[in-house]
Amino acid sequence: MKKIISILLSAAILISALAIGFTVSAAEEELKIAVASDLHYNIPREELEHDIDHDIYWYANRRAAMEDESGFIIDEMLRQVAEDDNCEYLLISGDLVDNGRTIREEHIAVAAKLKKFEEESGKPVYVVPGNHDFGAGENDFKINDFVETYAEFGYNEALEKVEGTGSYIANLGEKYRLIAFDSNDPNRSTGDGVSKEEIEWVCAQADKAYADGRYPILMMHHNLLDHMPVQSIFSKDFIIGNHLSVAEKFANHGIKTVFTGHEHCSDVATYTSFKGNKIYDFATTSLTMYPLQYRTVTYTEDKISYEAKTVDKIDTDALTATVSGYTQEHIDLMNAGLNDYAKGFLKTGVQYRLWLGMTPEKLGIDEDAFYADLVFTAINGLTSILEMPLYGEGSVQELAKEYNIVIPDSEFKTGWDLATELVAAHYEGEESFDIYGTEVAILLRTVALILFDDLSTVGDEIFLKAANNILAYLGTGPIMKEITKKLTATLGPVTVGEYLLLAIASPILYEFAYDSDGVNDNNGEFEGYGVEIDVLPNVADKIMNFFEKVMLYFNMFITIASKIFM
């Protein structure tokens, strides 16, 4: 009996030992990383300077970036990652600093922060350069300077480095390998510098990772996939050239996840190759701009899950001890919720940037050009309508009625308020504005109003100036405004041509306002590297998604264009 009990006890101990061993093995196979991008660190000023005519955000800038607060935001992100016991590594996909081409001290400050983080947390940091981090000019901070300054954050322990670039290879845990890819052209301010040979290098490194029993994870600064409608056209310097053919190659060499930045938006885009392989491009927003986010990503054999993390507080005592000029209202708002404060800062900065861009000088228009008066008048009309209150006396809604245009009620205060809200939603990710909803309706109808009112004003200014002077003397309003109002009252608020333009533009507006790709931008999961690919369903999904998108756009076009004949 004792012998049987001894055997049973021995078996129980053995099973327990095996179970513990299995648990440890499974835990070792799990990998959790934090991913941040576009830190854009600025050395804080000693005192805030008045840049914008605004009650609260008077020190906002055209980049809409919280420059003076940037170092404190970075500190808080590092603190959060350090306290996450499950997170093992921190990856940063470029633009560590804002003025890195010319101000070496910014790099030195960020490197010191990262070194302190590594020493205190024991968690390695891996970086790759962005377009703000180095240049090729005679006095620029060059790529070799970058590699030397950040040597402890990937380069010293690299399995392989590409000389003359910021590219390298490093292992992450027991099952994964990081391909840190320098996608920049030091001679261009924003565009990529990716060559055919470098693409082949990435593919070869992915193959080598699999040969070594590891899964490849790619990190680079420029986007691989579109993160806004037709990004390769409207924002081509933020996405690599021939991006779909490159995505096809990367996917077919087994790269499933790519971490990028540069566009400053939180967006996850996916591409399915013609062989049925999926690749996901995680664009991570700028840490020091709204929504002040970074990501955590957890890998297992079966699934890859991800979550957006927000920096919603900083050490405001340290901030005010470093930078003077903040009011108590500033500090109270930051302490109440830094993210909400950052959104207001962003919207003010975006408006300021767009307003600065709508000048003859920025548009490259000669004041002596024969069409200059036309353009100047149109710009003034545009900015005036955007600055008008949307509702009430002397509002956009009231003016629109004169042109038979209905502006729906909403909580927005001005046209700028709505336009910048759409921009903020793009940065935040998971856009959910309905193309047929109130917000987009207000936007489109305000654009229509701007067209009508501007065109009539241009007529006043240029074509019928003398006649208008006579009419004004007789007490009659400007003739072109009156003609336009009468025509719209009779024929409707838009012309055939404008309906056609709207029908063509609606798919682009739809994609910008409503994220329809089926992949959650901020929180979600999908199949892991270890899941066997079922090729046929993937290919079928690719074909079906294509035709569904074509039909969606066709339906939008027909719906809007058909109004011409109604």
What are the main properties of this structure?
566 residues, alpha/beta, Purple Acid Phosphatase, chain A, domain 2, 7-stranded mixed β-sheet, 20 helices, 13 strands
Description:
The chain is an alpha/beta fold and 566 residues long. Helix content is 48%, strand content 12%. Helix 2 runs parallel beside helix 3, helix 10 crosses helix 11 and helix 16 packs antiparallel against helix 18 (479-491). Mean pLDDT is 82; it is low at 1-28.
At a glance:
This protein has 20 helices and 13 strands.
CATH class membership of the largest domain = Alpha Beta
| Largest sheet entry | 7 strands, mixed
Mean pLDDT across all residues, rounded?
A: 82
Strand order of the largest sheet: 4-5-6-7-8-10-9
Fraction of residues in H or I helices: 40-55%
Radius of gyration: 28 Å
The CATH homologous superfamily of the largest domain is termed Metallo-dependent phosphatases
CA(first)-CA(last) distance? 95 Å
- The count of β-strands is 13
Strand content: 5-15%
Which stretches are low in confidence, meaning pLDDT under 50 for 5 or more residues running?
A: 1-28
**Overall tally of domains:** 2
Number of helices: 20
